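Good morning,

Attaching, inline, the backbone tokens for the sequence recovery test we're adding to the shared suite. The designed sequence is right after.
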């Protein structure tokens, strides 16, 4: 009888656990694109790997939650979160005023500037302006902060060509279908310049930092009003920043500080 009682109690606990809200659930669904090396990409077996993946897993360990990584196209990430297909987005998403109208963000977990990329020695200027790039085709990933920036600053003088992913963007740059590309400096350096496809290309101009378009760093997005999950993620982030876990992950991928 006691054995039956214990089994029934266990079943009840499991049933109650399954009914918890996402912010208290044992499984935490974290969304990312998976096309943004070295932050996130697929390995030879189709599994996600990269800086964002390791940070997500470190946060889940600290929160004693089971990470379930789910993939969506970049422009589907926020809709998927709002539709309850994910509990959080950890995808190098910049904290901007526009996005804050749709989702809530944790404190930043990274901060990397934007940069332009082009064929080496083609554009010699240390400081780029719309006049200096006039007439050149500028490539950018659609519906990103980089898209917003070049659309506002360069569309009057240069054609803007938008791509669904950074893979497509860099294929176009390498193939000469665009003259210049804008992207995250770290992702472009490691995910393009340090690959065979990026041979003969370089960072051009100087770092582009504009809080109006790029916000105050990259954060983890949660649904509007999910204060509990946001607070749990912030606490876990503070711990891994303090105990060396963040730095250990960072050293695995980068030779400089991205926080």
């Amino acid at each position: 009888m006691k054995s039956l009682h214990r089994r029934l109690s266990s079943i009840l606990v499991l049933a109650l656990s399954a009914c918890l809200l996402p912010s208290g659930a044992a499984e935490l669904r974290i969304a990312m694109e998976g096309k943004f090396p070295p932050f996130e990409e697929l390995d030879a077996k189709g599994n996600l790997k990269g800086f964002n993946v390791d940070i997500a897993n470190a946060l889940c360990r600290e929160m004693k939650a089971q990470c379930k990584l789910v993939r969506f196209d970049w422009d589907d990430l926020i809709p998927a979160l709002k539709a309850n297909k994910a509990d959080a987005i950890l995808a190098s998403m910049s904290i901007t005023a526009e996005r804050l109208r749709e989702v809530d963000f944790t404190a930043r977990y990274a901060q990397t500037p934007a940069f332009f990329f082009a064929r080496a020695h083609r554009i010699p200027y240390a400081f780029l302006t719309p006049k200096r790039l006039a007439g050149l085709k500028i490539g950018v990933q659609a519906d990103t902060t980089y898209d917003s920036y070049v659309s506002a600053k360069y569309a009057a003088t240069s054609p803007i060509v938008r791509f669904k992913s950074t893979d497509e963007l860099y294929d176009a740059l390498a193939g000469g279908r665009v003259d210049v590309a804008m992207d995250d400096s770290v992702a472009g350096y490691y995910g393009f310049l340090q690959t065979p496809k990026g041979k003969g290309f370089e960072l051009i101009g100087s770092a582009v930092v504009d809080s109006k378009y790029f916000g105050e760093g990259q954060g983890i997005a949660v649904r509007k009003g999910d204060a509990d999950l946001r607070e749990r993620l912030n606490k876990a982030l503070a711990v891994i920043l303090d105990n060396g876990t963040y730095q250990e992950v960072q050293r695995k991928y980068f030779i400089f500080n991205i926080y």
